[in-house]
């Protein structure tokens, strides 16, 4: 310790003196920021670890500083350090930690470094997951650590812990508090989509990729392009066609997509035509591109999904069909064990509820009878589901209308609006339009009844 | 060796040369002329030997014999991209050549005869004989056509086509003297008319210029130079003063366009003519002629419903073949009947065809069409398909109809299938197959394609071969749809809110500053004096528009899924 540095005990006492959040912000933060790094590495004269003297819950802010440095400095598997880390993340005070968001990021990075050095990325995952949940001001807030965690999970191929975080859609982005930038958003959704694809939850994967691609942009980001490629494949897998991207997608992104993702667009058009041979040829043609983009696994899964989708289509035209016929109809007739594979598909689809059918082996080769959906929609389950849906819809509509009202009452907007006069907007100023009731009414009315 | 329908490829050599055959060449050779009409037929170079086709749905095609119309392959690609296969018809069942051709006059008579000669070996010689006689009798100025026809006749006789024995030698040899005489006459006339036209133009008398152009057009038409005729007729447009002139112009152009095969043109001029204030005389006949022309054009463009309506609204004027240089009354019956059957639903069929008094006279001329329609309406499908089958060969020999017969027949058959299965809850496929005279597997295939196309609401029990009408549970469907809609709505609304937040906080993908050099830097610094004001206003306006449009249009968009 250099002579000019304050002594260890001074630091500790100062830390302990700052008891509430205001004190922390006003006095402790600048003080600690001014200290040199080696200070944090030091130990007291009595060989006591400052970390022991501080309580992670009440002195989270300072604890964090120390911890960052320890992690950065550690090599190898330090069991004690990890125990401290775990204690910290499970008990730290969110508010204080939020104040030190830069340090939080460094902490996360250091932790990941420790984990990778010991070649056990998995040890970083659980603590980070808990840490994020503490760091977030609300469950849907995006922090800088989200993409880091997602990436680590992907590398470790352990996704159990991140799932609760992923399932909470991001609804809150406040760069002032969290110091995130657009890359965090894009990367998080890109990795998140990949995680969902890994879990074969393609509906969510498509959502995440869509969010990444349609993020506001003045120029196209490479992350968005990669996300788009995976979007195309996941969409084909889940829906059999590429869902149209939202209208507000940036034009720069659209242009770049047209240029960069040609192979994917071709594959998608061939896929939508449902001719097995054509799709196979497209797949072969595009194979180098897919392999280079590391999307070949997804593309192969698309082929499987194609067979399943074709079988589903058959349920609409046939009531009963022999397995032989099914095999030839979906184009697998020429494959040696086509019938067996088809039967396997059907069994799995029945189990997963994708189709409703019974297989009887009375006749040679098996006969499949397709049944109607036995769900009559006349029970309480349906009622509950409808109720929750309605509540969610009204909640979000309320939020939207509130935002709308807030904006329209801002002076800046009002002035601009006023200068153009009433002819510009075309929507009347009376607020009944924007009550949630009206929005909901539109939605109900259009649904009435065939 | 069976007589080739079309001449050897060597003799047909000119055809492939002019790929832009139809409208551009000034060459008045007969080959050009036939290519004009037949180019679309010669597109695919696979002539086939066909008897009465066994199944109505496809005409089996085998590549037979020498290249035949192989040379004509390229010519056909010029105007129309449709692939019409050259189908050789063994013998039409019901066609009486003389009676059939008597209803026509003028150029279309020879066109049709040549068409038949090209397609049907058994009638080849007769048709060519009649054609040549016609040319001689009318003292045609289209000499090259005459020469060509004589040559074709010689070919046919050489191959021993039926009826060759009775061909008199004067038909077989080109009457050189007469031919030269005609050509000279044609040339003289051309020069004369052009000279006169120049005169008129110098004198700037509108009416004479117009008449001069018309005369010239008529002359070119008689010589077979259709493009020049068309051009001359079009030139009269600037000199038309009364609506009578305009009508005359339109009718002339229509005539030339039909023969050129330029049917979109025909439609334009029909509209033009119909919109001019009418002249009193010949009003009804002109109207009918226009309707017939437009019907023909629509038929050619495969717009069967429109064609049907046109033909059905002609009224009684053309019963006496007044428009015989384009279309005969029998044609009206056939074209109108078939198009109507292929495109109308039951009510329309009853209202516009069966109850149509004006159309009845035409149907009398072609009683089998009347029976066909009645049979269909009374669900007597075996009868319908039988009639269609019997007359198919004849229609394949028809100049305007041949390329559409397949489509029309398929349409009619589809409608028959749909109509057959509509009143029933369950249908036994074997019985159905019998009344449609097909085998069960083929029938099943057809039904599957109809089901997938959404035209039949049913499902097939392929084990017991039964068609079950589908009973959709509408209630469940609604629940499913509403849940889906709810989820979509929620997702989109959340995305919108998130997006607004991101834009408000500037979480936008931006390129690195200064990367693109000067201008970007300039922009960047420009940002500073107007950080919140202008940009914010745009954002507010944009986001507000987003929100309200989202709220109001979400349901409308989703409804259309």
Automatic annotation (TrEMBL), chain A:
Pfam families named in the record: COP9_hel_rpt (PF22788), PCI (PF01399)
Subcellular location: Cytoplasm; Nucleus
InterPro entries given in the database record: COP9_N, CSN3, PCI_dom
UniProt keywords, alphabetically: Cytoplasm, Nucleus, Signalosome
Coiled coil residues, start to end: none
GO CC terms, sorted: COP9 signalosome; cytoplasm
Domain PCI: 201-373
This protein's name: COP9 signalosome complex subunit 3
TrEMBL record, chain B:
Top-level taxon in the UniProt lineage: Eukaryota
GO cellular component: COP9 signalosome; cytoplasm
Presence of keyword Transmembrane helix: no
Cellular compartments annotated: Cytoplasm; Nucleus
Region (Disordered): 1-79, 509-542
DNA-binding as UniProt keyword: no
Keywords, in A-Z order: Cytoplasm, Nucleus, Signalosome
Bias kind Basic and acidic residues: ranges: 521-539
Major subcellular site: cytoplasm
Biased composition (Polar residues): 20-60
Domain PCI: 300-474
Annotated family: Belongs to the CSN1 family.
Protein's name in the database: Cop9 signalosome complex subunit
Source organism of the structure: Linnemannia hyalina
